[in-house]
Specification:
The complex is a heterodimer.
Chain A: H1 5-36, H2 43-61, H3 69-86, H4 96-118, E1 131-134, E2 137-140, H5 141-163, H6 165-175, H7 177-182, H8 187-212, H9 219-234, H10 239-259, H11 265-279
Helix pairs in contact in A: 1-5, 1-6, 1-8, 1-9, 1-10, 2-3, 2-4, 2-8, 2-9, 3-8, 5-6, 5-8, 6-8, 9-10, 9-11, 10-11
Chain B: H1 5-25, H2 28-54, H3 62-77, H4 83-105, H5 110-130, H6 132-135, E1 141-142, H7 149-172, H8 174-184, H9 186-191, H10 196-222, E2 224-225, H11 227-230, H12 233-246, H13 253-269, H14 273-290, H15 295-301
Antiparallel strand pairs in B: 1-2
Helix pairs in contact in B: 1-7, 2-7, 2-10, 2-12, 2-13, 3-4, 3-5, 3-10, 4-10, 7-8, 7-10, 8-10, 12-13, 12-14
The chains are: A mainly alpha, B mainly alpha.
């Protein structure tokens, strides 16, 4: 056990590095859920498009995925706004399942488009290679950079929500849309903006996935389930909760992959989610329902 | 009440006669195409029984199809059973899984249930590919030829018909009213004395059985199963789209949807596999926005079809 301690540390650190990406993805999903009360089940597909944007920019003009984050963010922000305005807004106020089915359908379309445009091959962007050795733990540079960037973006989004007027409007709309409206907040615009922001964050997460992992058009599906599981772990609508939920999922997946086999890893998110739904539905941090 | 059963009985007899005639006369190509259509009818009608009537939308219904396929194949290959016994085993396994899974997931509401079921089908797929000593893992199981393609078509065709009859019986019963009441307002239904948990679970188990038989029939049809082709998320998507198009919570809605999209898929866009998936996505989006209630209820609202729970 003592000799294997560094191995466990390595596994846990690896889990944390991936967990920060999960946290970034889930934060956007959580933001959209909080404001629109829509479970954006095409969130993983938006991330997948972000990964292809980063891949394309790198392949065509050799733009480093870390530098192309603003570009991807803006592209996905615009796409998100288009989706919200033309489709999601039409089911505002309809039963919850309408928006769930709608975004599910959008996800299928995006996957299919990507499949036709980019084929099913797995891609990655080898822009940053090698590892740093810290004590006995190897830290791949790409994952380390992705981790740090994910923290910065998630933290930035958190500060934006806490400190700015626009952020305050978003939080107000997510607490109580009706009261926010009577206080002079243009809730329809807040919804549009929140969806765009969530989509942009998913796009940025795509850049980081492209930098440090491999992807194909179908990864969106797996990430949807994971992102949803994370906001259940953290507490639906709870921004900080999604962050801790992401890290937790990353670590538990890492440990499961090490102790059992890699194939079981994709079931971890689901099992954790189910346990939380049944025994602690308010999530790690608790949440206003 | 008594005499009004006559048209339904005649329709069932006509359906049975049509199935027998088709099975006897159709060419092997048409048998294969017909198999796909009755597969869609069975699965959509099965999904409708729980999701259409109770409003508990399952994103993982393919899990019952998959468990049926695996149970039937294992009983045939490792247990040495014939196809009838193995098919019954598949139906029972699906029912048991539904009972266990339902007692957990049906406590969850709305989107939570939908996504819990999506995860359940993924988890069972992972189990099927990981447990290699039992399931052969990713390389799957090859089956002996137990049932001819015509036999498999007939088995599934009769299952489809049976599922429609079951839905008809449910729709007319007090039980069916309970399910619809749960869909409209579960708390209200409970306050009126509906045993919601029991009704939901019963509907879930009833809906799992035909899906399990369909999994078995599909295994007899193609003589090979593996985790990827046995738990395809596309199949769940197709059940949802077909039922939504025809109209959930009606007897014939899923049948109409499955026939329309099944025939269109088989004869129009099968040649374009790359846009196949995307078309389903477009259909979902279009249906949610333009005809969220489905074709049959829309026609009933317009007075073109009679407003009745019999259809």
């Amino acid at each position: 056990m003592l000799e294997s301690l560094p191995v466990y540390l390595q596994v846990i650190v690896g889990g944390l590095l991936l967990g920060a990406l999960y946290a970034l993805l889930a934060s956007g999903l959580n933001l959209i859920f909080g404001v629109l009360r829509v479970i954006n089940i095409c969130h993983g597909e938006l991330m997948m498009l972000g990964a292809y944007a980063a891949f394309g920019l790198f392949a065509l003009w050799n733009v480093h995925p870390l530098l192309s984050i603003p570009v991807t963010f803006v592209l996905l922000f615009l796409l998100g706004i288009a989706i919200e305005k033309t489709l999601v807004e039409r089911v505002a106020g309809a039963p919850e399942l309408s928006s769930l089915l709608l975004t599910f359908g959008i996800g299928i379309i995006l996957t299919s488009v990507a499949m036709n445009a980019f084929k099913a091959d797995f891609r990655s962007v080898p822009a940053l290679t090698g590892s740093i050795l810290l004590w006995e733990i190897a830290l791949p540079r790409a994952r380390l950079a992705s981790f740090a960037t994910a923290l910065v973006i998630t933290g930035g989004a958190y500060l934006f929500l806490k400190r700015t007027r626009a952020g305050k409007a978003i939080r107000a709309a997510s607490q109580n849309a009706l009261v926010a409206e009577t206080c002079g907040i243009d809730v329809a615009r807040v919804r549009l903006f929140a969806y765009g922001l969530g989509a942009g964050m998913a796009g940025a997460a795509g850049n980081l996935i492209a930098l440090s992992y491999s992807f194909n058009p179908e990864v969106g599906h797996v990430f949807n389930l994971k992102a949803f599981a994370i906001i259940v772990l953290g507490g639906m609508g709870n921004f900080a909760g999604a962050f801790w939920g992401g890290l937790l999922l990353g670590v538990v997946e890492g440990l499961t992959g090490y102790i059992a086999t890699a194939q079981v890893v994709d079931a971890v998110a689901y099992i954790l989610m189910l346990l939380f739904l049944l025994f602690r539905p308010s999530g790690l941090m608790g949440s206003a329902k | 009440m008594k005499e009004s059963l006559l048209p339904a009985a005649l329709a069932v007899l006509a359906g049975l006669a049509a199935l027998l005639a088709y099975a006897a006369l159709a060419s092997p190509y048409l048998i294969a195409a017909g198999f796909t259509i009755v597969l869609f009818v069975t699965l959509s009608a099965s999904w409708n029984l729980v999701s259409g009537y109770t409003g508990y939308v399952s994103f993982g219904h393919v899990v019952f199809f998959g468990i049926g396929a695996y149970t039937a194949s294992l009983l045939a290959v490792k247990g040495g059973l014939g196809w009838p016994a193995a098919t019954l085993g598949a139906a029972s396994a699906a029912a048991v899984l539904a009972l266990v899974l339902g007692s957990i997931t049906l406590r969850l509401k709305g989107a939570y249930f939908a996504i819990a079921m999506l995860g359940a089908s993924e988890a069972v797929r992972v189990a099927a590919s990981t447990w290699e000593s039992l399931t052969g893992g990713g390389s799957g199981i090859t089956l002996p030829n137990l049932l001819s393609p015509r036999g498999a078509f007939l088995l599934l065709g009769i299952t489809a018909l049976g599922t429609i009859v079951l839905t008809y019986a449910v729709a007319q019963s007090r039980f069916g009213l309970h399910l619809l009441a749960i869909r409209e307002d579960e708390t209200g239904a409970e306050a009126m004395g509906v045993a919601a948990t029991r009704a939901k679970t019963a509907a879930f188990v009833l809906s799992a059985v035909p899906a399990g038989i369909a999994g078995a029939a599909n295994a007899w049809h193609i003589n090979y199963i593996d985790p990827e082709s046995t738990f395809p998320i596309l199949l769940t998507i197709q059940m949802i789209v077909m039922t939504m198009l025809g109209g959930g919570g009606t007897v014939l809605g899923p049948v109409v949807g499955a026939l329309l999209l099944g025939l269109a898929g088989e004869f129009l866009w099968a040649r374009f596999p790359f846009i196949h998936l995307g078309l389903y996505g477009l259909l979902i989006v279009g249906i949610v926005i333009f005809i969220p209630e489905g074709l049959l209820p829309r026609l009933m609202a317009r007075g073109i079809l009679p407003r009745t729970r019999r259809l």
